[in-house]
Amino acid sequence: MVSSSKQPVDVLFINPGNRRAVYQKLGDDFSAIEPPSLAGLFATYVRNKGLSVAIVDAPAYNLSPEEAAQQVADQYDPVLIAMVVYGFQPSASTQNIPAAGATCRALKAIDPNYKILMTGTHPAALPERTMREEACDYVCDREGPETILQTAQALKAASKSPKLNEIPSLWYRVGGVIMNNPPAPLMDDLDAEMPSVAWDLLPMDQYRAHNWHCFEHIAQRQPYVSLHTSLGCPYKCSFCCINAPFGKPSYRMWSPDTVIKEIDELVNKYGVKNIKFVDEMFVLNKNHVIGICDRIIERGYDLNIWAYARVDTVKDEFLDKLQRAGFRWLALGIESGSKHVRDGVEKGRFGLEEILQVVRKIQDAGINVIGNYIFGLPDDTFESMQETLDLAIEANCEFANFYCAMAYPGSKLYTMALEKGWELPDNWIGYSQHSFEAMPLRTEVLTAAEVLKFRDEAFMTYFKNPRYLALVEKKFGPEVLQHIEQMTRIRLKRKLYSPGEEALRS
Predict the structure, then answer these.
(1) pLDDT 10s digits, 264-284
(2) Is the CB of residue 338 less than 8 Å from the CB of residue 384?
(3) Which residue has the higher pLDDT, 81 or 32?
(4) Is the pLDDT of residue 490 over 90?
(5) Would 506 be classed as within a structural domain?
């Protein structure tokens, strides 16, 4: 008999994660603590269909997989547990699989009768492998909400012998044999089906913005939210896996009216100022961008927003509206300083002069820029990676992310790596950019260790550059300068190499 103190719930969503494993010491003070916006959207969808829902957010409280599982056992009696393995950049789904898998195992150790469904970018990319390797009963190979709903409904209707063969996008077992059903169509009407995140189910006081997001008020990183105004991306960059849950490049938007209604709730009910638009590409559709900006401007909100853009999508007509609406940062996917390398990963037909012009244009409009760069793309050499670092130093953006190319499951690079027989990480945490086990993709001429070592040294070169530090002090003040200096005191430990040695292993 179930204890009366436990909450019966039709679908219990779990956001798994392990900040220390993914970010090492950077997770303590510098990284963001993100609300699980997709789990919250899925919860809204299921709740609007008449089922009861709850969310356990492990990273919000820095819970271990075992602690998260124990919280489930102590507080809930779920019909279905949905393990939502998404992230806030493409790698994060794969790098969260170890925590998700450990949580599944811990749940099954407590009660083997728990029914667990895994959904997210990584499970969608590798559904059969996920079924084989993880302690879950079901996997969804597309975007999730309808599959989660119908699986819970089937379990409620016939708990001993649920009818699973007609549930779209579902992988399951019959007599130990893995089976799968045809995919579900993508959701047509986001406004009607998932109008907002179920913020009332989340611990809103636990979330924290990225350090750089709040350089203009570094002591006020809370409250903070990340939310979607669109799903998917129409581009086909070979290093990205963002479209794995959608089956193809796609781009669907919530209407500006729906987006502003959610922002109204966040500002007026939760006092939110710091907002990240999670969209893989926000600055794209004119009516969407201008429509949202106009509605924010009309309300006079004092917001600190950041969003993603491409060099070739930033139009002059956007910038004034974005600045007036409170967009304080745009993240530009510059990726490489080498046009040859950019062409090789289908990353736009723009040159170095255009990149620098766009950076300056954004800055002149009163918006900060975070430049995103990738080392170790397939055609990279030491010389081309140095070109990328030189471009980053010349651009001198207010912040920069330096990544290694990773063959994320669901990306073209993953398929290419398998075809070429290039070594991949032996553990999913190896796909985390900042983890000890990080193992990037090798290139045609460089080892994985050489790429990783170059990336780590480039990070220190950039953030210790006197020109960059002068920009930070002039624009954001001595407190932020000190914050940057504290950040560069943290040296990531790496399995592939140790500081001071030649990075030739692997």
Answers:
(1) 999 999 999 999 999 988 988
(2) yes
(3) 81
(4) no
(5) no
Instruction: Please determine, for residue 345, whether its predicted confidence score (pLDDT) is greater than 70.
Output: no
Residue 453 shares a structural domain with residue 341: yes
Sign of CA dihedral 162, 166, 167, 173: positive
Residue 499 within a domain: no
- Sequential DSSP letters for 44-87: HHHHHTT--EEEEETGGGT--HHHHHHHHHHHEEEEEEEEEE--
Counting residues of the chain whose pLDDT is more than 90, the rounded percentage is: 73
Strands of 177-180's sheet, edge to edge? 53-57, 7-15, 76-85, 116-120, 138-140, 170-174, 177-180
- Cis bond upstream, residue 123 (ω within 30): no
Percent of residues in the chain assigned helix, strand, coil, to nearest 5: 45, 15, 40
Q: How many CB atoms lie within 10 A of CB 189?
A: 11
Clarify whether residues 170 and 247 are in a common domain.
no
Q: At what angle do helices 145-157 and 37-48 cross, to 10 degrees?
A: 50
Q: Report strand pairing: 170-174 vs 177-180.
A: antiparallel
**Domains identified in the chain, total number:** 2
3-state class of 83 per DSSP?
strand
**Least confident span in 299-303, 363-367, 480-484, 488-492:** 488-492
Instruction: Supply the pLDDT for residue 17.
Output: 83
Residue 225 lies in a domain: yes
Contacting residues for 284 by C-beta, under 8 A, at least 6 apart: 234, 251, 309, 310, 313
Average per-residue pLDDT in the chain? 90
Tell me, what amino acid is at 109?
Answer: A
What is the C-alpha separation between 330 and 287, in angstroms, rounded? 18
Residue 234 and residue 350 in one domain: yes
User: What's the domain range around 329?
Assistant: 207-405+440-487
pLDDT in tens, 369-420: 999 999 999 999 999 999 999 999 999 999 999 999 999 888 889 899 999 9
Pick from 152, 12, 162: nearest CA to 74: 12
The strand pairing partners of 331, in sequence order, are: 308, 370
Instruction: Please indicate, yes or no, whether residues 176 and 267 belong to a single structural domain of this protein.
Output: no
Asked if residue 223 has a cis previous peptide bond (ω within 30° of 0), the answer is yes
**Structure-token pair, residue 285:** 């559709």
Average pLDDT over residues 136-142: 95
